[in-house]
Write a structure and sequence with these properties.
globular, five-stranded mixed sheet, single chain, two-stranded antiparallel sheet, Glutaredoxin, alpha/beta, 7 strands
Amino acid sequence: MTNAFLALFKIEPMEFRISFWRHRLFANQDFSWKVYIAIKIQKNKMNLISINFLMLCLLTSVSFTLKAQDDVVKEGQQIPEFSIVSVEGQKISPATLKGNVVLINFFATWCSPCIKELPFLQKKVWEKYRKRNDFSLLVVGRGHDVTTIIKFQNKYEFDLPFYPDKDKSIYGLFANKYIPRNYIIDKEGKIVYQSTGYTEKEFELMIKELEKLLN
């Protein structure tokens, strides 16, 4: 019936719909204001979503940039030259580690993630590979002397090869900030893995990398 009416007066259906809704809007001011406000709210929501998305992209980009700046060495590079002495008096350098798969862990006695990670390092790494002649583990106490590390070791009953780095000189060859940190060096002295912080997922990735090199 409606189409026949439109055809009789030669009115296009789209024109009719536009005219009809324009009449509805202006005939009912309350309705038109509700539509206007709803559109404004929706536009504001879309703008807010766009701003949040852009901020997220920006923060992600900054985070990756800062992380890159915190790393002194990168995967694929050779291990830097250094010399360090364990709490038991054993002197270690890249020359003495040659031919071994090496895991270097940097920690601090006040660092909660470090304290959470070390028991897993002892159980899943040190107890498994300590008797192998082609594996070395260095647990380096950033900013700590021998006395502090021994007290820490006794407190938590750790059985790990600890190395003091009181002036942070060894740590500074690898990174600028943040602990815990882990580095795996292959038998050719190349850094093949590195991580910052501690999560179970990241730790398992490190274990898999060790297994790949030692099996």
